[in-house]
Design goal:
alpha+beta, Arc Repressor Mutant, subunit A, Alpha-Beta Plaits, 2 domains, four-stranded antiparallel sheet
Amino acid sequence: MITLDELDKRILQTLQLDASLSNQELAERVHASPPTCLRRVHRLRKEGVIAREVAILAPEKLGLGLTAIVEITLDHQASEHQIAFEQLVAKEIAVQQCYRVSPGPDFVVIIQVADMAAYHALAHRLFATQANVRNVRSFFAINRSKFETQIVID
């Protein structure tokens, strides 16, 4: 774990809201000099605190209107079987998140697809044709009332 001072925390909180800021704009918002900001951001990237910077898209504007939250239980839960399942879902671009969980199912995955037909095709590929998948329980989002990527930094 890395130790963060108050300036690091202000930089991270600001970048979580808008990573497209120029170094000059970032420096102004966090009340630091541009060279200091540049050096700090570089260090935070190098140490892996800033894992990556991305654009967050509106799926409904792109015709990806169905979000599925899916619980998966495997027949065999040995580490190699869990890793194999994780590798399988990692290849699917529609799978946005995959969590190994406990207790309950073995995995929870978040899937974003165009419609129910696209979900059915994906579910067939990922779940129905896999011998080690014992149970699949799917929930379909009817409304997204909150979606955040920001991590609270104390």
